Amino acid sequence: MTAAEKPLDNPSRTFRRAWQDIREGFQQRDLWGHLGWQDIKQRYRRSVIGPLWITLSMAVTAIGLGLLYSTLFQANIGTFLPYLTVGFIVWNFMLGCVTEGTETFIANEGLIKHLPAPLTVYALRTVWRLTLMMAHNLLVYAVILVIFFGDLSTTGYKITEAGPGQPGLDWTIVLAVPAFFLIALNGVWVALLFGVISTRYRDIPQVITALTNLAFFGTPIVWTTDLLNKIASGGSSWRSIIIEVNPFYHFIQILRAPLIGNEQSWHHWAVVGGITVVGWFLALVAMRNYRARVPYWV
Amino acid sequence: MVSIDVWNASVDFPIFDAKSRSLKKAVLGKVGGTIGTESRIPVIEALKDITLSLKEGDRVALVGHNGAGKSTLLRLLAGIYEPITGGSKIVGKIAPVFDLGVGLDPEISGIENIMIRGLFLGMSRKQMESKIDDIAEFSELGDFLQMPLRAYSSGMRVRLALGIVTSIDPEILILDEGIGAVDAAFMDKARDRMIDLVKRSGLLVFASHADELLMDLCDSAIWMDGGRMKMQGSLREVLTAYKGRDPYENLSPEALARFGVTAGGDK
Question: Residues B50, B161, B153, CA angle at the centre, nearest 5°?
Fold first, then answer.
């Protein structure tokens, strides 16, 4: 080493290093792809139908809740069941990103301490595993789509009696692809940021677990915004505002709306886009300051 | 060009729950540095003020008592820990083998472990698939590679781990003491391969308490004591100072011939 390149006192805390970690992490596709798939295989090892359990448990939950809530809300099962199923599938993915994201580094303690690799690999492993699980759940969506295609493709169908007419399934279903990518991209920053914080403060995963049930019932998944608007009688009361400040609502909406032919609103995309930018910025800052500390903390 | 540079590096472990969580687990049970008390969170100063520079062709032994900081230093050299103060710069493809069994997943098969290790060490799936036969042959594990790793003995794990790291042509080989678990016949085979690797374009750092293994693999040495580098020099000098006697004096003539030294004189 020459005197000219005599390095900084602590060269590990720079944005360049944080960015390098993220870039190299994404490049090691073989690695996180393999690890994520390994997780799924491992979880269902020695069970007869294997990963199809993911599909089956989703089907049971969706049908059960769909029957119950469509009766409670006096909604048409043909439109309400797909609404609830898709909402639930998207919710499961996001929930996974948040709860398993907090465990990203803690769960990989052994690997982090034994093999040098970019931390981003572990975040991508988590998100990829959840993506594979979501792919299994989409089988339920496919079946439901076949069964209820008639209901969903009718222009002007209503999810509940109170709701406005929906445009029905058409070419806009392709928007589900960029929507999913955007949600998954958010999953990565969530896993990085929450992963770093949770590794240092082990209470965070507990806090998040405690809040997830509330978030589930507070997000329009088993109920619809139509019902809330009816109670609020159309005015922009505090009830509607509560919905708008719930980030999960916007995330669910960008993916659910195209999949079941609902009215799409660009403001959901704008909100999600904004969260993506802010979230990635926060994740970068966390990675800059604490990336090198994670192996000490796990 | 392969090199490792470390300057003024210190490593300390914060112990967040010194009361409830055993210190042993938190620091892998290998570090016995000073426990600092100035902050609210107890800190174990595992390495203090390490400055060293290793280059291509170096075969370095790490010696020292338990808790002297050998394993922590190895992790620093492998790029797993980045120093808290000071800095480090590592150039080259690194292949570390630490405590066996932890870096490998016990529930999955030997083949799967080969694949995952290889991917971590920067290989692609295709490259690893072509190496599996070579690793199977070298490690002599045969059909055992299909078994989950928990069925392996510790010697078999070492065979697997050494098979992987030596087959992927790493530039920097970092070995912890665990590799002593294999039998002599296999060690001979592995030694040839490792020496060959280092000759081609490599660098080896090896921590062990087994003198013969060190003499086999290394030519220089670092003596760690209390998280500091107490001495750095040729293997014989350092071992003599560390043990208080010349480690070569009681060896058989055959062994001396193998290590290329004479009982009384220098290399």
Answer: 120
Handedness of CA A89, A90, A93, A96 (dihedral sign): negative
Interface of B with A (CB under 8 A): 5, 7, 13-14, 16, 28, 53, 75, 78-87, 89, 94, 96, 98-99, 102-103, 107-108, 112, 115-117, 119-121, 124-125
Nearest to A115 among B7, B84, B120 (CB): B120
List the single residue in B28, B96, B125 with the smallest CB-CB distance to A30.
Answer: B125
Q: CA quadruple B15, B18, B20, B21: dihedral positive or negative?
A: positive
**Torsion B11-A119-A106-A287 (CA) sign:** positive
pTM, two decimals, is 0.88
How far apart, in whole angstroms, are the C-alpha atoms of residue B152 and residue A51?
A: 28
- Whether B101 and B72 have beta carbons less than 8 Å apart is answered as no
Q: With an 8 Å Cβ cutoff, are A28 and B119 in contact?
A: yes
User: Is the distance from CB of B97 to CB of B176 less than 8 angstroms?
Assistant: yes
- Give which of B80, B130, B157, B164 to mutate to test A binding, by max A Cβ within 10 Å: B80
> What domains does chain B contain, in order, with CATH numbers?
57-82+93-259 (3.40.50.300)
Do B135 and B167 touch, CB atoms closer than 8 A?
yes
Residues 6+ away with beta carbon under 8 Å from A192 = A22, A101, A104, A119, A120, A123, A283, A286, A287
- The number of angstroms, rounded, from the C-alpha of B242 to the middle of its chain's C-alpha atoms is 19
Residue A203, min C-alpha distance to chain B (Å): 12
Interface test with A, best of B25, B49, B82 (most A CBs within 10 A): B82
Task: Kindly report the length of chain B.
Answer: 267
pLDDT tens figures, A188-241 = 999 999 999 999 888 999 999 999 989 999 899 998 888 877 776 655 667 777
- Chain B hits for A1, Cβ within 8 Å: 5, 7, 53, 89
Q: Which residue of B has its CA nearest to A112?
A: B80
> What's the CA gap between A93 and A91, in Å, rounded?
5
| Angle at A160 (CA atoms; ends A158, A166), nearest 5 degrees | 25
ipTM confidence: 0.83
